[in-house]
Amino acid sequence: xxxxxxxxxxxLVSLCLAEPGIxxxxxxxxxxxxxxxxxxRDMERLGKRAxxxxxxxxxxxxxxxxxxxxxSVGTPPQEVQLDIDTGSSDVWMFGVQxxxxxxxxxxxxxxxxxxxxxxxxxxxxxxKIQYFTQGSGVEGDYIAxxxxxxxxxxxxxxxxxxxxAVSVNTGIMxxxxxTNEALYASEVAQGITDATPYPNLLDVMKSQGxxxxxxxxxxxxxxxxxxxxxxxxxxxxxxFQGDLGILDIQPxxxxxxxxxxxxxxxxxxxxxSTGSTVLTTSNMPNIVILDSGTAFTxxxxxxxxxxxxxxxxxxxPDYSWIIRCDxxxxxxxLDYQFAGPTGPVISVPFHQLATPLINPRTRxxxxxxxxxxxxxxxxxxxxxxxxxxLFGDTFLRSAYVVYNMDNRQIGIAQTIFNVTSSDLVAxxxxxDTQDLPGSVAVVASxxxxxxxxxxxxxxxxxSGIPTFAATAIGTGNGDIALTGYKTTYSNRATNIVGAxxxxxGAGAGSxxxxxxxxxxxxxxxxxxxxWRGLLVQGLLVTAASLFGAGLII
Length: 553
Description:
Blueprint: H1 3-18, H2 31-46, E1 52-58, E2 67-73, E3 78-85, E4 91-95, E5 110-111, E6 120-130, E7 137-149, E8 152-166, E9 171-174, H3 182-189, H4 201-207, E10 215-219, E11 227-232, E12 234-236, E13 245-248, E14 262-272, E15 275-279, E16 286-290, E17 297-298, H5 301-311, E18 314-316, E19 320-324, E20 333-338, E21 345-349, E22 354-356, E23 374-377, E24 379-380, E25 389-391, H6 393-396, E26 399-404, E27 409-414, E28 424-426, E29 439-440, E30 484-487, H7 510-513, H8 523-537
Parallel strand pairs: 3-9, 4-5, 4-8, 13-29, 16-25, 17-24
Antiparallel strand pairs: 1-2, 1-11, 2-3, 2-7, 4-9, 6-7, 7-8, 10-11, 10-26, 12-28, 13-27, 14-15, 14-16, 14-20, 15-30, 18-19, 19-23, 20-21, 22-23, 26-27
């Protein structure tokens, strides 16, 4: 008999002899396994209303990311691929009549209204969306039909089908507040006092029992990932670090309605090997809108000027700010703190801001005169005074964001890149004012979120190679370019990939090293259609989806 077994038996004997008739054994609980078991039990109780995950495809070639969902519409089902957009609220797709190669490539496929036996025509010719670029937009019909994503189906769902599309490249799956629907906004602007939004996707998911609350969470993963995911009715604990920070969504200052996912940003900083610096600006605190339909992050001009000097970006007349993809070896993060000095901090690694520029004919990276691969810097300033600050994909990739429309709250935490495991938690309706676990960040004063114009923002189109591609692009000025004060963030995440070391060619590997994921679905077909559109029209998207519900080709 082994000695360890002998000692174990002796210990048990002495325990039994210590108090006749009683055996006292100490028990231990694995708290994480217990919590997971409770969550599994809750999922079983929720049944049909349990949260469900839908995979997102990502095309990393253009503008630093383009995230779409595979959807089916009508009977029999017709497959379309739609840009997922938290900044708009209508679901619409191309109709077959709108696919004119001179005006739109219809990337993602088109829907044939005449081929669906379950379709109801609600209103002919009244569906209209105007985009930011002059003359761009869509027009068509409102229909009701079946709509499926992630093996879940809603019935009699209101959508738009475009019969005319100009300078718009994909259909949209808008998942914002229903008060941001194109028809409702148009009627309000016309002074129609009894205007009422129609039930949009989250409304219908809840009313038809697919989810318990109008909520979802978004995980875009890193710049090179082939896929992301969205969880409807819950969130995924495996995808973020620490606890969620809870932010109150801000209403529109003029109407008082909740029309967008605006939250209070209190500061922007830079963390590198010298420590953390909060940048000085008169433009903070400010309202920023979390918008997955925008590829870049829009920040005040004074902050942008300091950051581009710090990183060494060059202002190209065609492509705006361009930079070496390897950042000249610079490593660190841009730090965004929300709702005051104790609020959550989201840190964006520098290399996640370097979005590749690709030659559409060769599909090879564009390089400068010394062979350095050139990227676009995923930051910009507002193009006009009334333009809101939009936090798009170059921010959202580093943030795990939970959108709770029922309680008008955002849950936010530092994302963990390249996670394949899952730990779903349902968001259930609470009896008080908070459905999400975590601490609510309280702001001392709330800036006003001014009303935005009733046009959706879209990028600009140009063609050609960057003007400065023939020039060797250097490195930045570092801390000397910054104006601010040193700080130590009490709740900044740790173990942020890329925060302390930059891999060779960081930010430039999307074209050849994009992570292949078995759940990527129709990525290949979509990309082939995308490139075909580029070659047919001889265009390159260079504003790279700075703004808006989608890219334009």
